[in-house]
Every structure is written in C-alpha cells, then in structure tokens.
C-alpha cells in the first residue's frame, strides 16, 4: 500500500510539472514565490484575512495564488471588487465545489451553495420571496420581540441572583437568543426549557451541528489526500451530516404530523406558519421540487446563516460599547429620548434610533462576520484589474482589509460610529461589504440586522453595563474563518431603576 501511494504521488507530480511547463504564459496578477506541488500553501497562515493583508504593500490589492490543484484570486480593493461583481458578476456567480459542500449540503440544494443556474434561480426566488422578503421580515416581529423579551428576562434573573449586579456570559445568552429565534422561525418551537441543564445541552447540540461551515479544507486543494482518508476529514463530515440530517428530519416529520393532526380536528392554520409548514404546503402542490431534502437544505441555510453571524456581531458590539462608554451613553440617551422608560423597545422604534444603527454599522465594518467573503468560482476566463484570470479560479474578497484600508477610511482602526451619521455614502459601492455584493450577496441581511438592533438596544435600555475588572475588554479575534472573539465576553449588568417593574412583570409572565 505504501508503494502505491508513492507512485501515485510521483505520477501526480510529473503530470502537474508537464502542465505547468506546457501551458502558455498568461498575464496573471502579482504572485509571491511558490514551491513545487504545494504552491503558495506556506502563505495560508491563520487567520487568512490578516496574513493576506500583510502581502498588500509588496504585491498590491490583487493577488494570485496557487495551492495544490487550485488557483486563488485574492481581491482587496473596491475597484477590483466592483469589476468582479459588476461586469464579471455572472462569471463569478458560482460557488466552488468542496468536500464539505458535497457531503453536507444535500446535493447542493441550499440557496447559498447551489451552482449558478436554473436550480439556483428557483432557490433564490424561494428564499427572497417566501422567506426573507420585507413582508415576511415584518411578520416575524412578534417572534423577535418575544425572544428578546426572554433574553432580557434571563439578564434580569442573573442580576437578581447576584444581588443588584450580576456577571453574565454574553456569548451564551446571545447564542440562546439567536438559536431559539431560528428554531422558532423554522419549526415553530423553541429549544428545551425544562431546566438550565437542558437549556445548555440544547445550545451545545445546536453548536455542534450547525457551527461547522462548508468552506474548503486541505483535501479540496490536494485531492490525493481524500483518496487516502487524510486525518479522517471525510469520515467526520459524513458523521456530521448523518447527525444533522437526523435532527432536521425530526423537525420535518414532527411538523408534518402536527399539521395533519390540526387538519383532522379542523384547527385553522396560524397567521404565521413556520418555514417548514410553508414548505410542506408547497410540497403538496409540487412534490417533485419541494422534496424533504430541499426542505432540510433550506432549514439548514437558516440555521447556519442566521445564528453565527448574529451572535458574533452582538458580542463584538457589546464589547466595543463597554470599551467606549461614551458611545454606550449616547445610545442610551437616544433610547430615553425616543422610547422612554414606560415600555420596552419594540421593532417599530428602530427607525427612530439612527445612532444605534450607526453603532452596528461600525461594528460590522471593524468585525465583519465573514472577513473573507464566501468564496466564488469563475466559470470562464475573464480579466480583473487588467490581468487574465483563468477559468476555474477561486475568488476570495478580503472585506476585512478593505474595511481597514487607510486610503478609504479615516482612522480605520478606531471605533467611530459617527462616520456613518448624516450620510449613507460610506456604505455605498464596494468599500463596505459585511453582507457581500452582487447577485450572491446575503439575502438575510435585513432580518439579521433587525434582531441585532432590537437585542442590543433592549439590553442597553433595560440595564446598566460595566466591564469585569478595570482592564478593557480583550478584543483579540480567534483564528477561524469567521470573526469570533477569542475570549467569550463576560460583563456585569444591573437593571435600571425605571425598568425594574417592567422586567419583574416580564419575569412573572414567563
């Protein structure tokens, strides 16, 4: 078996060498020194968005890399981004095929990862019109407000348990908030609430199932590693898919059973059917397209896209506000002026809180959830920045580098929500990219922003906030593909005197 692997590697090396020697010289973008076989693998240091940004001074904003069998175009300037998602938008409308995508995404039936074509257009219509339209976002107002109410109730319980001020694990509470909202949106029910232990088990299970992306791994760049079962990656992905599928199928089967039972007893349908209920009604009319696999893939998209990015943004936002108490007080003053202390903030108030919106915009600039936008894949040869880009090139947009470019932003490393006040020009074009750009930009931006604004605003309205200790909150990011704080946020909160009565009533009603 060892000799077989040796000869297989040797043949692969010879074929790759012949290909490199015989292909014509292209006008490719600048590229660092590469090594045989592995190419620029040594430049893939974590976190990638930072390591690639360090190459900008020497090679410029457009970089060409080769890692194993794959070519990568890294773009870090608004002009090149506009070219990729302007004149070349259709060419870069595809997603790369990856091992994780093949195994985890139900034959690419997820809107986010489906190949560009008729299936993607059908899924886009389904997602944008039936799930994420402005009308549906508005219909979900009661669910958002209910879950944010549960969130502040837990904060109130923590402060009561520790006297006037309680230390709270903000990442855990933000996770519970977003997971329950996503689960209720998808299936009409929340996570376990039998006791605190069951609640924590629900959060842990949800994270283990859905906080694993479908990005690339080393086997996508070196296919031979997949053949030899390198590090058991494929085996682990298949086991994850089995567990995910089991969880999602239970949701589908349970919803189908409840719907049939309601019909049998003549119960009228609710005003806001869950996502699965809606898709099952479509299945009755068109079972060929609306298969169980498509329903599960659509639910999976909501769970993955609708939880992680919201949790990360809320945690960064609260961390930044604790480190900048003057901005925190400015948000609270705006809240008192426009909402008052006689009731809790609601969805309709958000339009009257522009500074709160500026804070979230600035958080997303400094800490975009996906600092390297989800990868795109060129379907044919094209030109970007005057360079030739071959068909089959992986496109990575370094949003983090663009958001912190001193030639674009004034004092880019500083937290300055005021930069977004009075004008939305800063968010125009391709210099502000927290949700991507082009026809494959994130369709759930409006829904995610509503939850972030409502949760953050209500927390500030109802509680006084302090750091744990005298030092500033540690803002070190983790090294993964998404921008997560390396150290989970803990903070001290105490209910504001004017809101104690309302919070007590909320606690009693629950």
TrEMBL record:
Its cofactor is heme. Keywords: Heme, Iron, Metal-binding, Monooxygenase, Oxidoreductase, Signal. It comes from the Eukaryota. Heme binds at residue 442. It holds the Pfam family p450. GO terms for molecular function: heme binding; iron ion binding; monooxygenase activity; oxidoreductase activity, acting on paired donors, with incorporation or reduction of molecular oxygen. Residues 1-24 form the signal peptide. Belongs to the cytochrome P450 family. Gene3D superfamilies: Cytochrome P450. This is Cyclin-A3-4-like. InterPro entries: Cyt_P450 (IPR001128), Cyt_P450_CS (IPR017972), Cyt_P450_E_grp-I (IPR002401), Cyt_P450_sf (IPR036396), Plant_Cytochrome_P450_Monoox (IPR050651). It comes from Hibiscus syriacus (Rose of Sharon). SUPFAM superfamilies: Cytochrome P450. PROSITE patterns: CYTOCHROME_P450.
